[in-house]
Design a protein that fits this description.
The protein has a single domain, classed as 3-Layer(aba) Sandwich (Glutaredoxin). Helix content is 44%, strand content 17%. It has a 4-stranded mixed beta sheet, sandwiched between helices. A hairpin with a 5-residue loop joins strand 3 and strand 4.
């Protein structure tokens, strides 16, 4: 009877480790490698206003060491480069801010209107 209890104990421990033990080990968050900002310098009134506001947010947030993360693309001046990102990430509304890992996988995005607090918080979340 003693061996049976020990065997059952080990079996229960093994099941517990399989069921619960792995849940405490979370995958490390993706590491931010690059931020791509797509904007327009030439557009109709309301769209141009959104892009200018987005430019202001990007100019305030990406200072110091954060500047090295940023790749800025003006669709009005470089359509080919912008289209690459527009197709790949299915962007529909400028301005667009894309947070990418080292393999080019999308970690986070914001399109349309950019919010300073939200962008700053996301940068901190990803360690930048």
């Amino acid at each position: 009877m003693g061996r049976r209890k020990i065997l059952i104990g080990w079996l229960v421990l093994g099941i517990w480790l399989l069921a619960w033990g792995g849940q405490e080990l979370e995958a490390a968050p993706a590491k931010l490698n690059q931020v791509v900002y797509i904007t327009l310098s030439k557009a109709c009134g309301c769209l141009l206003d959104k892009c200018k506001a987005g430019d202001g947010v990007v100019d305030k947030v990406f200072v110091g060491a954060r500047q090295s993360l940023l790749k800025r693309i003006d669709y009005s001046l470089d359509k080919a480069s912008a289209r690459e990102y527009i197709r790949k990430y299915r962007l529909t509304v400028p301005p667009a801010l894309l947070f990418l890992d080292s393999q080019g996988n999308l970690i986070w995005r914001s399109d349309g209107e950019l919010d300073y607090d939200q962008v700053s918080a996301k940068l901190k979340e990803f360690g930048a």
